[in-house]
Amino acid sequence: MEPTDADYLARWREGDQEAGNVLVRRHFATVFRFFRSKIAGSVDDLTQRTFLACVEASSRFRGDGSFRAFVLGIARKVLLVHLRKQYRHERVFDPEALSIHQALDPTGGSVTGKLVGRENERLLLAALARIPLDFQIAVELFYWEEMPLKEIAEVLEIAPGTVKSRLGRARVMLRQQIELLAESPAIAEQTVSGLDHWARSLKRRYLEDEP
What gap in Å lies between CA 211 and CA 178, rounded to an integer? Predict the structure, then answer.
């Protein structure tokens, strides 16, 4: 019987590096994509920090839970630490109120200019960076990782019942940003009406372009 993620994590905690390598291979794409959609630099470093933090926090992982939710919850915390060091306007970066675009210098933090592809994809990525971070994360986990609401709630440290309403609010904010950023009303409407398609198209593009 194939060992579970919990089994591999326990072995890694005891010093079995190969068990750690298995976990990294299983979940690397998800964690890498989590950071890559938000920042232009330090993605490899932040991904590595996340997996190392998994070992340090392994005693908090319930064996019957989702390791993917566990590792993405840690990735979110690693990202918040990174952003709070970068954010210069306030003493505290609030992920429920502030966006990646507000947190980072556009010349150093924007990933939108690095994505070559359809205008709708570039527009959606730019709009995602302009809604509050935790709302952006909820959208990406729902569309890209196809996570159930319960696991998204674990990552965001909120009640499961809150996730559905947060996704609804995120879609409204996305529409507003898309309409502001689009070169024409037609492009805005095409992107908004095909949100499911363009969100999943972005995921495929990130998968195809991993290191």
Answer: 29
